[in-house]
Amino acid sequence: MKILVIGAAGMVGRKLTAALLKAGQVGGRDISTLVLADVVKPDTPSASIPIETHSLDLSAPEAAEKLIVSRPDLIFHLAAIVSGEAEADFEKGYRINLDGTRYLLEEIRLASQHGPYAPRLVFTSSIAVFGEPLPVEIPDEFPLTPLTSYGTQKAICELLLADYSRRGFVDGVGIRLPTIVVRPGKPNKAASGFFSGIIREPLAGVEAVLPVEANVRHWFASPRAAVSFLLHAAQMDTSSLGQRRSLTMPGLAATVGDEIEALRRIAGDRAVKLIRHEPDPVIARIVAGWPQAFSAKRAEGLGFVAERRFDDIIRAHIEDELGGQLG
Question: Which of 94, 103, 150, 164 is catalytic?
Fold first, then answer.
């Protein structure tokens, strides 16, 4: 099996790559070659199988051709610019998040004209495809009503994935990721970045800024859970999806206050005191239109699993990023 990971230099992409190399197989098929691509050239991990790395911009029409010419069996499409940046730069958001995906799908379709070819394509969507007015808990049947450019771009890509799957060009699975916390490394431009920052920075002994009120409620999963979603989507039986190719992933509904109290239980008052409340009306406006909780029964019934307590999300970060030890 030849596997292509687009967006491999990102946090989830790096963790997914490590998980693939550790497993050595997907769905009972050995991994023969791993191709890693991103706008910044991904690092080449040590491995017993061939690994190719590419630095390219998927929004350039010729980029997809370079990636699909070798006809990978399994494709993970993680590449995107994040919510805050997509809202701030309208043209860039549509060019990368929408055009890049469309070019990829089209190149796969064209490749199928030269012999049977319909790879499994796992696409990372987002709960930003939903927007107000929202019920307290959003069911699987709820319509896509995005209120941001990022959410709109992801919603359009979900429709494309479904149509190209219906036509037999790809075997697509779209996974709507919860907000992933705690993200390691430096903050990015995502409007949701503070959800990680108020945990990550205090655990490192650094001050964190909280731009919203403590009663803001949202839907979360850990990076560890995100990787498990991707791997499960890569090997699941897609016949049960029918024409509804995108799934809302399970997660944990929690308020910012719940996050802070979980941090207090694990790291104490000293860590909590490093959180500084500094309201940001722009971020508050964006977050106010986001979903708060989901039933996610369809994905759970298909075998997707996430954390049940925010304490477990924090502990996963400590184990995976801090060597299991608090500073």
Answer: 150
Distance CA 157, CA 174 (A): 9
Instruction: Provide the residue-wise pLDDT of the chain in tens; the chain has 327 residues.
Output: 999 999 999 999 999 999 999 999 999 999 999 999 999 999 999 999 999 999 999 999 899 999 999 999 999 999 999 888 898 899 999 999 999 999 999 999 999 999 999 999 999 999 989 988 899 899 999 999 998 899 999 999 999 999 999 999 999 999 999 999 999 988 777 788 999 999 999 999 999 999 999 999 999 999 999 999 999 999 999 999 999 999 999 999 999 999 999 999 999 999 999 999 999 998 998 888 788 999 999 999 999 999 999 999 999 999 999 998 886
| Single pTM value for the model | 0.94
- Output the DSSP codes for 193-257: HHHHHHHHHHHTT--EEE-S-TT-EEEEE-HHHHHHHHHHHHHS-GGGGTT--EEEPP-EEEEHH
CA distance 93 to 214: 30
276 Rama sector, left if φ>0, alpha if ψ -120 to 50, beta otherwise: beta
Separation between Cα atoms, residue 132 and residue 17, nearest integer Å: 36
Is 150 designated active site? yes
